[in-house]
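Deliverable D2.4 — example input (structure tokens):
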């Protein structure tokens, strides 16, 4: 029997922090019709004419702040996760890592699986909460590529793992290192998403954003909603750590453009908490399985500085899942499920 193929796919990162690489990365990322979901002509004008030329130099500076001897943290941790998973699964499995944007590409990882004569492929988009712009985009590209093969192997996808028990335990364990009870408030800061993309997930058109608490419970109507899944992750984490409802806030960071994104925005929450006299914040970023630009710069540097300017004292990031053995066990279970 052939090996069972496993494909881990994370978002992607520039090949280097220099402006030309960042330009290439942002161009590929933001020209994805699931990321900037507007007609192609308008997307091309916006992305190639405005965002990429103006944003690349600024984003390059930020990447230079987090780049280290291992390169991009996101790629570095992703490689370790794939290696540890391969070791855990053993010789009956063939694990490949890909990035949705830049390298290693999904195309090359699939070619490696094909060359390895795998008998099946399990794809894990490495995003705990489903979003069309992340998991959906990975699934679409994998399906497009594999659909062109002469022999299409049995292929399956993990859609989301927002309530994965081991994942919750790892985040909680990482938080305990910081004595959560010594903080004035806890934030669960998720990567943002345009509201338009949330609304598109509600096929009934009757539920999403129709009330201020539409994401507070998961039901058949909103089970694929990124925000509702995020609220679920936050609830489970708060329960695991015994954090009461009034002591935490779910919020969304990294907004791009002028259109409304899912709210509340993390920056607004920082202002509100500072005005209430809160001094020390513990911040989880549970939309990511590895530390990356958004955690290591946006939270650790930008939000920390911003909160201090507002009168606060400290913003402490809870380390991501990275190379934690229990997270690798979680991946193993997903593969074997
Ligand atoms: C949870 C996963 C992610 C979703 C959903 C997502 C949506 C999304 N992102 C942008 C724009 C940018 N995101 C950027 C960085 C970035 N995004 C994710 C994950 C999700 N994005 C990660 C892991 C990272 C960091 C990658 C790394 O190398 O560390 C960036 C680049 C940085 C910058 O210029 O600010 C942009 C741009 C949009 C528009 C979007 C949904 C519509
Ligand atoms: Fe993003
Ligand atoms: Fe909702």
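Example output (designed residues):
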């Amino acid at each position: 029997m052939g090996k069972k193929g496993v494909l881990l796919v994370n978002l992607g990162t520039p090949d280097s922090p220099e402006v030309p690489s960042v330009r290439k990365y942002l161009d590929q990322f933001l020209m994805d019709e699931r990321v900037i979901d507007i007609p192609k002509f308008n997307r091309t004008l916006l992305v190639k004419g405005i965002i990429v030329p103006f944003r690349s130099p600024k984003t390059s500076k930020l990447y230079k702040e987090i780049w280290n001897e291992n390169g991009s943290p996101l790629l570095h941790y992703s490689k370790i996760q794939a290696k540890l998973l391969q070791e855990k699964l053993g010789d009956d499995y063939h694990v490949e890592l890909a990035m949705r944007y830049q390298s290693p590409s999904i195309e090359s990882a699939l070619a490696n699986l094909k060359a390895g004569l795998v008998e099946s492929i399990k794809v894990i988009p490495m995003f705990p909460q489903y979003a069309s712009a992340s998991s959906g985009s990975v699934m679409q590209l994998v399906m497009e590529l594999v659909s062109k093969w002469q022999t299409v192997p049995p292929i399956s996808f993990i859609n989301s793992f927002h309530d994965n028990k081991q994942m919750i335990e790892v985040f909680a364990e990482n938080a305990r290192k910081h004595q959560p009870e010594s903080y004035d408030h806890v934030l669960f800061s998720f990567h943002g998403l345009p509201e338009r993309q949330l609304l598109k997930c509600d096929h009934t058109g009757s539920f999403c954003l129709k009330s201020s608490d539409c994401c507070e419970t998961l039901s058949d109507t909103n089970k694929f909603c990124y925000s509702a899944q995020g609220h679920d992750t936050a609830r489970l984490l708060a329960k695991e750590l015994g954090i009461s409802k009034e002591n935490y806030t779910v919020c969304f960071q990294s907004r791009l453009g002028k259109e409304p994104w899912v709210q509340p925005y993390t920056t607004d929450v920082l202002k509100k908490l500072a005005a209430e006299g809160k001094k020390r914040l513990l911040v989880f970023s549970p939309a990511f399985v590895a530390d990356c630009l958004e955690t290591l710069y946006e939270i650790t540097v930008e939000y920390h500085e911003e909160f201090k300017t507002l009168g606060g004292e400290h913003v402490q990031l809870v380390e991501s899942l990275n190379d934690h053995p229990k997270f690798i066990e979680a991946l193993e279970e997903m593969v074997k499920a």
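The mean pLDDT is 97.
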